[in-house]
Amino acid sequence: MSKIYIIIKREFMTRVRKKSFILLTILMPFIFAALVFVPIWLSMIKSDEQKSVGIYDSTGQYVALFKDDASYHYLPVADYNNAAYYSDSTEVEAVIAITGNLTENPKQVRIYSRREVPADLLSYATNVLNEQVRRDRLAATGIEGLEQIINDIQQDFEISTVKRTAEGNETGSSTEIAMAAGFIFTFLIYMFVLSYGSMVMQSVMEEKTNRIVELMISSVKPFQLMMGKIIGIALVGFLQLAIWGSMLAIILTVVSVCFGAPAVTDAAAGSAMMGQDVTGSAAAIAAASEGDGLVAALLNLPYLELGVLFVLYFIGGYLLYASFFAAVGASVNEQEDSSQFIMPVMLIMVFALYAAMGSAQNTDGPLAFWASLFPLTAPIVMMVRIPFGVPLWQELLSVGLLYATALGFVGLSAKIYRVGILMYGKKPTIKEMIKWVRYK
């Protein structure tokens, strides 16, 4: 045991002292936060310059519909063919030309510009004219109140979801939040197993290529060396994930404080006291209620169950795949030779990821059930199902099968490892690796 501890310590300290590990560990949370928040922040920044847009309306029915805002100033023009509007020195961003009654012919409107028309201008013009054409067509029917009738028919509604026990206790829930939570844990396991499992293989191959392993084998048993590498690299991953989680929590808190909007309920109360639009206040209160519902659904997730099973599947899945990667690394001499052995495992992991995505829509279906029990896919698929509720017997069976298979893989990999680690110059085949397993 002391020798395994020495190997674990060596593997752990060697990696955490690397500049690449330190830089990646520190920078990754900032990069992740930047990828999420910078586009949102940039999209909220509006230009201080108000651009001019010409409106040519031969009918005189539509020009008054366009209202100035912070981005655009709309002004009537007498001739949309005027070349001055399209020169490089013009201050007119675009010209909206309406050459006929749009109720009769919707194609009699165009936007002219010397460059591509901005998306927000195109969207605004389309919405304004579509709404007016709709009203004109409803008015042409002569049916009183038809517009209100159609609005009532087309009004959408949302169905709230509630968890209820046999005793009548009710708690808020959200299918979207449950799916998101499951996918987050699923991707964490997938990325960890793939990244750090490959790191085990690379470490073994490097030491085998440099002939360092020949010296190490003279002092420790191959099994001790393999387990020391697997556990040592796993601890590196746990440390990195813990640092990332802590830093992301701090970054998200700071971002929320710096860029967060004031509470909606306070805004609603203030607007009501100032005698502002009651409809706006009602909308704010509704938004606040929806926000409270999402918070309640978030707080009602089975965090204890998620946490415990995440750790179990995390360890079991890593142990299963890392032992295989270690055996492959010990068997081959070059990176290219590992492809024939790694490809089937990669396909299984990709299948597990797609199975998890498909299972999110039907967490009790055959695909979700069997994929969450099959040891090679269980760590990835089961995490999607847990937020929706999984029977205890299925969880216990899945974890039991996973660890039984992982221990079996460790045993087989150790037999391949002890022979392959000292094999040089010959590309191994599946047949030869089976022979290595049979050696005593």
Q: Your description of this structure?
A:
The protein is an alpha/beta fold and 440 residues long. It has 15 helices and six strands. Strand 5 (162-164) and strand 6 (170-172) form a beta hairpin. Helix 7 crosses helix 10 (303-331).
Identify the notable features of this structure and list them briefly.
440 residues; alpha/beta; four-stranded mixed β-sheet; two-stranded antiparallel ribbon; 6 strands; elongated
Please report the total strand number as a whole number: 6
Which blocks of ≥5 consecutive residues have pLDDT under 50? Answer: 261-289
Query: C-alpha Rg, in Å?
Result: 32 Å
Q: How confident is the prediction overall: mean pLDDT?
A: 77
- Helix percentage: 55-70%
Topology (SSEs and partners):
Blueprint: H1 2-16, H2 19-44, E1 51-57, E2 72-76, E3 92-98, E4 109-112, H3 119-141, H4 146-154, E5 162-164, E6 170-172, H5 175-209, H6 212-217, H7 222-259, H8 264-273, H9 278-299, H10 303-331, H11 339-359, H12 366-373, H13 378-385, H14 392-420, H15 430-438
Parallel strand pairs: 1-2, 1-3
Antiparallel strand pairs: 3-4, 5-6
